[in-house]
Specification:
Structural class: alpha/beta
Strand order of the largest sheet: 1-2-4-3-5-6-7-8
Helix content: 25-40%
Number of helices: 6
Order of helices and strands: HEEEHEHEHEEHEEEH
Distance between the termini: 39 Å
Number of strands: 10
Shape: globular
Largest sheet: 8 strands, mixed
C-alpha cells in the first residue's frame, strides 16, 4: 500500500475544493508598534480576490506544523497569514497582540488578492484564547475558530479581561475545538463557556474530541496523522467556507 507523507495527504484533501495543493508560503515581516514581527504567509496562485485567515500560533511558537497548516489553507483557497506574535516577547500583553492582529488585517488589506470583507481568525492554545478574546472586539473578522483556548484566563495587568467577559460583544460566528483530556484548559470550562454563549444567543459550534489532550493538532511540532487532527482541520475549513464569502 502506498503511504504518502502527512502533509501531502492533508494538502490533497484540502486541495479538492479547487485550491492548488502545491502552494508553499514565505516568511514575511508585519510591522506593528514600530517593530517587524517575523510571520509566515501563503496565498493561492490566482490573483483574484479571495477570503483570508489570520492564524495565531500556540505558546510554543510558530512551529513547522503551523506553517504547514498555513500552506494547507492557502491550497484550499484562503490567503493565510500566521502572525509571529512571540517575535519580541514570549508573553506579550493582550493590548500588544490586539494591535498586531489589527496591523495584520491592514497587511492583508493592502494585498490585491484579498477580499477584505471575508477574513477569519483562528488560533491555538494561547492563540485560541486570543481568538476568543479578539473576535468580539475586532469586527473586521467574519468568523473565528478557537482551538483549545482559555475562556476564563484574565484578571492581570497584561491580560486584564477574560474572553468570557466579552461574550455580549460577540457578533461573528465561532467554532470551538477542544479535547476531553485537555489538562491545561479543562473541558468543563469550555462547556461552561458554551452554555454562556448559548444563553446569549450567539452563533457557535462546539466540536469535542474524546480522549484528546491539549495541543492535539500537532505531534513533535508537525501536523499529527490522527483522526482528530484530520477531522478538526476539515471542520475548520468547512466552517470558514460557510462564513467567509
Amino acid at each position: 500500500m502506498l503511504t504518502l507523507p502527512v502533509l501531502a495527504l492533508s494538502s490533497l484533501a484540502l486541495g479538492q475544493a479547487g485550491g492548488n495543493a502545491a502552494v508553499r508560503g514565505q516568511d514575511v515581516n508585519v510591522t506593528s508598534g514600530g517593530r517587524a514581527y517575523r510571520s509566515y504567509l501563503a496565498a493561492p496562485a490566482s490573483a483574484t480576490r479571495k477570503p483570508a485567515v489570520i492564524l495565531l500560533h500556540s505558546f510554543r511558537g510558530l512551529e513547522q506544523g503551523y506553517r504547514d497548516l498555513v500552506d494547507e489553507l492557502a491550497a484550499a483557497g484562503f490567503v493565510t497569514l500566521a502572525l509571529g506574535w512571540q517575535t519580541f516577547e514570549q508573553e506579550p500583553s493582550d493590548a500588544t497582540v490586539k494591535t498586531l492582529v489589527e496591523d495584520g488585517l491592514k497587511y492583508l488589506g493592502a494585498r490585491q488578492d484579498v477580499n477584505s470583507g471575508a477574513v477569519g481568525l483562528t488560533g491555538f492554545c494561547a492563540g485560541g484564547r486570543y481568538t476568543m478574546l479578539l473576535l468580539p472586539q475586532i469586527k473586521a473578522f467574519k468568523a473565528g475558530v478557537a482551538w483549545y483556548g482559555f475562556p476564563d484566563q484574565g484578571g492581570t495587568a497584561a491580560k486584564p479581561q477574560a474572553p468570557n467577559a466579552l461574550i455580549g460583544q460577540l457578533t461573528a460566528p465561532m467554532l470551538i475545538i477542544h479535547g476531553t483530556r485537555d489538562q491545561p484548559s479543562p473541558i468543563a470550562s469550555i462547556y461552561a463557556y458554551a452554555e454562556r454563549l448559548d444563553a446569549a444567543n450567539k452563533t457557535f459550534k462546539l466540536s469535542v474530541y474524546q480522549g484528546e489532550p491539549h495541543g492535539f493538532l500537532l505531534r513533535e511540532s508537525r501536523i499529527a496523522d490522527t483522526f482528530a487532527s484530520r477531522d478538526a482541520r476539515r471542520d475548520m475549513l468547512n466552517y470558514f467556507r460557510e462564513y467567509l464569502r
